[in-house]
Amino acid sequence: MKKASRFLLLWGMFLLAVQGLAQKATLSLDSTSILIGDQVTAVLKVTLPADAVVRFPEFSDTLTGAIEVVSQRPVDSVRDENLLRASRKFILTSFDTGYHAIPPLKVPYAIDTVLSELTTEPLLLHVAAMKVDTAQP
Description:
By secondary structure, this protein is mainly beta. The protein has one helix at 2-21; strands at 24-29, 33-35, 39-49, 52-54, 68-72, 76-79, 83-93, 98-102, 106-111, 114-119, 123-128.
């Protein structure tokens, strides 16, 4: 009887661990350093159980005070038997030099009637000024 209880407990812990691994959101940049006015692609990726319904954030024209959203692509998703993998690309730019923090993005989702949200890690974007050669007239 003890072996059966221990087995069921371990099996339940394994299933919870697998369920936890299936829920994640990541934000990545194709470059962490750009010249002023250049564009960078940000990709927001979400992995959830297949029965989840996810709502990606919408941005008007700015992500932060110094980072502008040039465009947003439609959500691209693949759903198989167990997982939903969805992503969305954002084209960003900045006209302010320096290091700019991209705050954690929140991605709400629902499984059945349970509402929850995933949060990405914050990122830094370095925006450099273009060097001007003052030696040449």
